[in-house]
Design brief:
Layout (H helix, E strand, L loop, with lengths): L2 E6 L2 E6 L3 E4 L4 E8 L8 E5 L11 E2 H5 L9 E8 L2 E10 L3 H10 L3 H14 L4 H13 L3 H14 L3 H13 L3 H11 L7 H13 L3 H12 L4 H17 L3 H14 L4 H13 L3 H14 L4 H13 L3 H14 L4 H13 L3 H14 L4 H13 L3 H14 L4 H13 L3 H14 L2 H15 L1 H12 L6 H13 L3 H14 L4 H13 L3 H14 L6 H19 L1
Parallel strand pairs: 3-8
Antiparallel strand pairs: 1-2, 1-4, 4-6, 5-7, 7-8
Length: 558
Amino acid sequence: MQTIDLAVSGRLIQLKSGSALALNPDVSFNVVRASTDAWFDFGLDYRLRSHPSYDLRAPHTLREILGEDKVYHVEAVALDVYKNGLPVGTVSLLVRPSSLDWLRRAQSVEALEDKILCMKKVWELTPGDEMVFQQLLGLLIEAHQYDQAVEMLKAALAEKDDPALQRKLADLYAKQDKPEQALALWSRLLPASPQDAQLLSDMAAAQEQLRRWPQAAESLDRLAGLQRGRLKAATLLRQAKALQLAGQTERAVEATSQAATADPQNVAVWNDLADQMGALGRRGQQLDVLTKAADLHPTDFILQQRLATALLEAGRRDEALAQLERLAAMRPDDAAILLKMARLLDEKKDRKRLTELYDRLGKLRPDDPDINFNLGVLHLDAGRLDQAADKLAVVAKAKPDDLDVQEAYFEALASQKKWDQAAEQAAAMFAANDAAKVAAIVYPGLAANRPDKLAAMLDKALEAKPAAKSLYEMRATLALDREKPREAAKALAKAVEAFPDDLAMAMRLAELYEALGNDAKALALFEKILDKNADYPEAQEHYLQLKTRMLSNSDRKK
């Protein structure tokens, strides 16, 4: 084949074999004739290779033949010429939708990637169209294809210096986490727009990200000057943080104070200001801040609690107690608050209110041994002996090795003159605690009221080795008080054996032996004392008197 003639929208176009023709999908075409090297051009046939069934002598469009979707995906179709059933030539029909076709296609497809593909085709066909540029740029940004968007903007800025495009490029750098490049562009734009709040905010964010705290504080200061209310307060708090990190503590406090003024209903601002005052050691100013904040926010529990703590730290006990009472009214079931109040009331020696407070605590924590102990002691001090004993009995059972608790319970029983129960309590105390300490507690009451039981307890305690010296002494004293000197001597003899260097103990035993008429034992003890200390007070005198008496008695017997 040499040529083929096509009618394209009524216009005759001649193509050589092997050539190509670009066609819009909506333009009609049909084959008019073809010429070959033969003498006669009879028996020629025309077919599209991909769609051979179409009669190409009749007009058709590529959209009709390929379908709506394929006209945007098929690059070209081959038109073959046959003679007597054999191929003799080919031309290519290039499928070329217009920019309007691609724009319509972009509007009809759903997938973001497909929209971008269509708009890129539109941009290729209309490279200077501003609307197309903005639409394609917006789609790329929406798809997070930032690199391509950046390249588009850089190419556009190479042709013209446009602040709007610079702003978009800076925003893209920020999205790409490139704060250095973004900040450079924003800084160039700032002189022309010094009152642009968004620009200042973006700059400050980049400076914060780059840890350029002084510059960030400056940008935030300028931004705050353009704002009001809560927005201004939030910016001032950011500035305060930047100033702190820049080492400008005084200015940071000033910025936070301004934030509190701008948004006094923001509790977090007051808390920040109080923290900063505390960090600087300005306890008085911190207390002033918390007092003002608490007045502004009477229902904020945390703020009210901080004020109570600050008052306590400042030593203002009465005000702290009043503040704790407000907290207790806000949270009547909070035992921690009541315990703090209890400590203050204890310092004030206000036993009436303290008892009332522990009654409340007891209802909140009925099984708390510490609360029951304190309540029992308060009842005991107030003479409410039955109530004291009831409370302390429970605590004593829960804390058998807590001597303070055991002593309080013993005193409650003793105060009620329940001596048998007191003796039982004393026995339990001896079993679980240091015997010498227990004996010192229970001796006065039991020696006068249950001496036999006390004697048995002391004897049992003395079986332990080693036993405390005071136990021997108390046992001896108890025996003497009961006019049982031989029991006393027995106890002191054990003491002298356990503590051979205690000359006072030995002297006491020797004197007791002498009083009992056991002169031999007394004399032997006096000799031991003098052997260890020849100048021991009265020992020599006793020794000589006893020795003389014994010799005299011996002479009489002769």
